[in-house]
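Inputs:
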Amino acid sequence: MSTIAFLGLGNMGGPMAANLVAAGHTVHGYDPVPAAAERAAATGVTVFPAGLEAVMDAAVVITMLPSGELVRRCYDEILPGAQTGALFIDSSTISVDDARTVHQIAGDAGHAQLDAPVSGGVKGATAGTLAFMVGGTEAAVTAARPILEPMAGKVIHCGATGSGQAAKVCNNMVLAVQQIVVGEAFVLADKLGLSAQSLFDVITGATGNCWAVHTNCPVPGPVPTSPANHDFRPGFATALMHKDLGLAMDAVRSTASVAPLGTHAAEIYAAFVVDHGGEDFSAIIETLR
Ligand code: NAD
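Outputs:
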């Protein structure tokens, strides 16, 4: 069992850290928001008053922060206090460029470092079933696997540094487009006199099937657990989809890629987030009726 520093004990980091404690690790946590720190302490995390102090005795340092800028600032603050040879794992969703920058900063200080963003949301974080998309060396990924395992349903080594973030933005760009077009299909079906249940039964047994239908169905009825049955309570909040599409668009621009549907989806969610950031992103169907 290891001593693990966990920085960022919010909606995702709190339950992830709790799963590490439950697996028998010693977890040293830090979060500047007192309520987040208190919730983590109640699950067995030893909370420190600063990130620098939390990392001092840790063999592994995990960050789960809102943005790339915060990860960069956090690394600048904590690296001087980290143990020689500590393994750094960043599970925040940040840009590929930021992922490469923080990898370089950690490497210059003598540390192995991985980008390891996740999919699965707060539910997956709580259940310990997150999908980790990992970028970095084989040796670092091998060292990280037993640490990630109590938080993970699966751990996919995607390639070199930045590949985990690349996989995450590509996946979420697909998801954004699918959720919009699934909404379009259900609205069109309604206008054609086709019931939502019939369309659901056909799509889920046919070539249009995808998570945006079989799990996150945007109309009430066919999937009782989908946010459409619960006033579009997330789920995956529109604000987070908007953030991830922003990162996807950064990547499209920096690589001079052509992504007309992803770009249009980013525009649609940029307009929707203004008044609906807290709703599940499947609520986009409401703009199509
Ligand atoms: P959150 O805002 O609930 O938690 C982030 C926490 O980081 C906050 O409690 C904040 O106080 C803390 N923090 C900020 N600066 C810090 C610092 N220097 N040191 C320590 N803690 C600091 O956000 P979240 O929903 O937990 O998301 C975290 C990351 O995971 C984001 O990058 C997000 O995009 C990604 N993500 C979220 C979800 C989701 O469903 N919420 C799903 C997949 C990925």
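Remarks. The beta strands are 3-7, 26-30, 46-47, 60-63, 87-90, 112-115, 118-119, 130-135, 152-159. The radius of gyration is 20 Å.
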